[in-house]
């Protein structure tokens, strides 16, 4: 199969269906030290829910964890194969003992220190909805500047994504897609894990695949406790269009049209492994809020400004930071 030009640059954002907005703030902001950079709404369905964006100071690609807290809307699903099963953050070398103690103090059940691909890490789950997380020790050179959080000292702060892990029943077809269509390069194996990287790897440029032949498939619909999609960065709309054209030419035709998401432009493709991938062009978060005010107000489409308060009352999912 023909290999395409290297158009995909790295991890952009991850989008997760969670339980409650406050549960997300308690974990992402008050425990992991991320900034709530944007509060918007998701309107598909009978009841609106928040769409929350967490990251570093300006929400750079490679730091963005976005959530749909869907519990009150009644969206349910099942975790399993064909989904992203863990989101891993970078932490400075030598800080895992601090993070382990900190997570325990915050009533988060956390693993002992483990090792994979020669790197030490901790694993834990979102206390409110069960989504998987990891914190991986890595040299801070070339990593993202962390948000100056009042909850986490800067010297131990998380510095964007290290990697994401997809759980699959088998990897043959997904391996071909990632190498030939998504320009990921195999980096080796560690047990049931296969590592891939964009370019030479580094911060937010790694994707792991965990093979579990016995894991039952997860659901694809938006449901609490599941990663909905994994978004990857492309440079601009022309590159995005060329990527779609060429990937469809390889036979991967389950692509969406371009979607304007307010803060990025997106196209989506269902991969052979079942994971929903997005190719995302960054527009940024400061066109409707100043850098100092990011995340301070709920932003809605202009045509909905007149009913925003009513939507918030209907949602009934308060946030206290």
Tell me what the structure shows.
- By secondary structure, the chain is of the alpha/beta class.
- It has a single domain, classed as Roll (2,3-Dihydroxybiphenyl 1,2-Dioxygenase, domain 1), CATH 3.10.180.
- 15% of the residues lie in helices and 33% in strands.
- It has helices at residues 21-29, 96-105, 172-180, 237-249, 308-315; strands at 10-18, 35-42, 49-55, 64-69, 83-91, 114-116, 119-125, 132-137, 161-168, 185-190, 193-197, 206-211, 226-233, 259-260, 264-270, 276-282, 298-299.
- Strands 14-15-16-13-1-4-3-2-17 form a nine-stranded mixed sheet. An eight-stranded mixed sheet has the order 6-7-8-5-9-12-11-10, with helices on one face.
- The longest helix is centred in the C-terminal third of the chain and has 13 residues, at 237-249.
- The protein is globular.
- The chain starts with 9 loop residues before the first strand and ends in a 6-residue tail after the last helix.
- 46% of the residues are buried.
- The model has no long low-confidence stretch (mean pLDDT 96).
In short:
The protein is of the alpha/beta class. Helix content is 15%, strand content 33%.
């Amino acid at each position: 199969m023909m290999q395409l030009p290297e158009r995909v640059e790295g991890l952009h954002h991850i989008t997760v269906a969670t339980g409650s907005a406050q549960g997300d703030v308690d974990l992402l902001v008050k425990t992991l030290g991320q900034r709530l950079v944007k509060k918007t709404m998701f309107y598909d369905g009978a009841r609106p829910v928040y769409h929350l964006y967490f990251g570093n100071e300006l929400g750079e690609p490679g730091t963005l964890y976005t959530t749909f807290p869907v519990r009150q809307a009644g969206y349910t699903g099942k975790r399993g194969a064909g989904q992203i099963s863990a989101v891993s953050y970078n932490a400075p070398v030598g800080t895992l003992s601090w993070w382990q103690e900190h997570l325990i103090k915050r009533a988060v059940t956390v693993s002992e220190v483990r090792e994979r691909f020669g790197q030490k890490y901790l694993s834990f789950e979102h206390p409110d909805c069960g989504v998987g997380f990891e914190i991986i020790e890595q040299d801070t050179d070339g990593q993202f500047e962390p948000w100056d959080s009042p909850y986490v000292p800067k010297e131990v702060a998380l510095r964007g994504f290290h990697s994401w892990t997809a759980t699959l029943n088998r990897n043959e077809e997904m391996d071909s897609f990632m190498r030939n269509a998504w320009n990921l390069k195999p980096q080796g194996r560690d047990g049931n894990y296969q590592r891939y990287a964009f370019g030479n790897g580094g911060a937010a440029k790694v994707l792991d695949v965990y093979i579990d032949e016995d894991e039952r498939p997860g659901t694809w619909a938006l449901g609490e406790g599941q990663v909905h999609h994994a978004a990857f960065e492309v440079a601009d709309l022309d590159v995005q269009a060329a990527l779609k054209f060429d990937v469809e030419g390889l036979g991967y035709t389950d692509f969406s049209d371009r979607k304007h998401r307010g803060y990025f432009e997106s196209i989506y493709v269902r991969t052979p492994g079942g994971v929903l991938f997005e190719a995302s062009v960054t527009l940024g978060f400061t066109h409707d809020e100043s850098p100092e005010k990011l995340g301070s107000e709920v932003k809605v489409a202009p045509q909905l400004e007149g009913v925003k308060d009513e939507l918030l009352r209907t949602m009934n999912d308060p946030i206290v930071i």
